[in-house]
Design brief:
Number of helices: 7
CATH topology of the largest domain: Glutaredoxin
Helix content: 25-40%
Strand order of the largest sheet: 1-10-9-4-5-6
Shape: globular
CATH class of the largest domain: Alpha Beta
Oligomer: single chain
Distance between the termini: 21 Å
Length: 268
């Protein structure tokens, strides 16, 4: 038993040793992520507004989410390739964030770009969250609704993401995850599926601690190394190291269980 405990403690220290150091403010963190994560793009502009619907007809606009950090993505709900992979990735990130006090400060939003009839699209949307593991406590799935078949695809275009219909009835598009701060400003894009999920969690956590400031109307230039911090709000959220530890806890527990089982397996 003593040996098992030592292995668990060693695995925990090994896990913590692989985590990146915490930055003190959003600008400093932007500079660090820009240096090490080629899929991270800092942005500094007002987020394009949208007014869409849930599958059950409830109207939701970006203004309704003011006060929360929004993790936004666009998907073709009928897609069978990149979109399900992005949804699985984001639901995994949501589960890690929801282990922390950030759960009540962050909203995940997926916007469907389907231009087909609203009724079958809504039917697909109703089962999508369960299929991909999203927690409805802080996740919304929106689309144009009846009478606005292009609202989703037009909103994606406003965010700089094109969805183009193909001859086989699919949509060709890029994969981007957008992060919007509490004041409705677009602050980052995480491109593709290969960005480090911990980087997105760290960035979201930094935004939850940030005091709202002013932004430019255009994308910000890449941050310079050693950029000054933008002071964090006092109180509220826990230290960044604590958030990272909670986010990584499921992985650590799984590794410990696997190690324990290997040690207990009969030798020979």
């Amino acid at each position: 038993m003593i040996r098992v405990r030592r292995v668990v403690v060693a695995a925990a220290f090994l896990l913590l040793g692989t985590l990146p150091a915490a930055a003190h403010g959003v600008k400093e963190l932007e500079a660090e992520l820009y240096k090490r994560d080629m899929f991270f793009q800092p942005v500094d502009r007002v987020a394009p507004a949208f007014a869409l619907e849930t599958a059950d007809g409830r109207k939701v606009g970006l203004g309704d989410l003011r006060g929360k950090v929004v993790v936004l993505n666009f998907i073709y709900a009928r897609c069978k390739e990149e979109c399900p992979l992005q949804s699985n990735l984001l639901s995994s990130i949501q589960r890690q964030i929801n282990l922390t006090p950030m759960r009540d400060l962050v909203e995940f939003v997926s916007i469907a770009t389907d231009t087909e009839d609203a009724k079958p699209t809504a039917a697909i949307m109703r089962g999508y969250g369960v299929q991909h593991g999203f927690d409805p406590v802080n996740w919304l799935f929106l689309y144009g609704g009846p009478g606005s078949p292009r609202a989703g695809i037009d909103t994606a275009a406003a965010y700089g993401l094109k969805f183009v219909a193909t001859k086989d009835g699919d949509q060709m598009h890029g994969v981007v995850t957008h992060v919007i701060d509490q004041a409705g400003h677009l602050r980052a894009r995480f491109h593709g599926l290969k960005f480090d999920p911990v980087d997105l969690i760290m960035f979201v956590n930094a935004l939850t601690n940030e005091r709202p400031g002013t932004v430019d109307d255009d994308d910000a230039a890449p941050p310079a190394t050693g950029a000054e911090t933008s002071g964090a709000a006092g109180g509220g959220m826990p230290p960044l190291w604590f958030v990272i530890l909670l986010a990584a806890l499921p992985v650590g527990l799984t590794s410990a269980i696997i190690t324990i089982r290997a040690l207990r397996r009969p030798q020979g």
